[in-house]
Amino acid sequence: MVGFAQGGLEHAARSIMSTPNAHVGIVTGFFIRNAVPPSPETDGLGGMAHMAAGLANAGIPVTVISDAPCSKAVWAITTELPETVALEITSVSKASVVALRERLAAGERPITHLIAIERVAPGSDGKPHRE
């Protein structure tokens, strides 16, 4: 795995910096229903904050994207960043996610790069697992 990933971060950074009118989307948030109390995880939010602040400071527009269950935590972080970033919140339904994707793709400055931080992928059964 390490060999497979080697150079990936550098390649991604070069791609962002060399793309005219780059616009980075950062998808984050992982809601843990069985936590006491149920709440979003917090590991990815720090990474998102640093990544978003660094990119925005370099003059690259950033849109942070999350889902409704994580919205308060993600909003709280994005409002404290030293540079302004856009925030998009969607419900967890497929239709809502597709509509957001279409709207962002049709925007004045579409997202050119998408970074996922602490988002779960579908399990072996194809269903998105939340914990």
Detail the topology: elements first, then pairings:
Elements: H1 2-5, H2 8-18, E1 24-28, E2 31-32, E3 39-40, H3 43-57, E4 62-67, H4 71-78, E5 86-90, H5 94-105, E6 113-117
Parallel strand pairs: 1-4, 1-6, 4-5
Antiparallel strand pairs: 2-3
Describe this structure in words.
By secondary structure, the protein is an alpha/beta fold. The chain has one domain (2-117): Rossmann fold (3-Layer(aba) Sandwich), CATH 3.40.50. The chain is built from 5 helices and 6 strands; from the N terminus they run ααβββαβαβαβ. Strands 5-4-1-6 form a 4-stranded parallel beta sheet, with helices on both faces. Strands 2-3 form a two-stranded antiparallel sheet. The radius of gyration is 15 Å and the shape is globular. Residues 5-129 form the D-glutamate cyclase-like C-terminal domain. This is DUF4392 domain-containing protein.
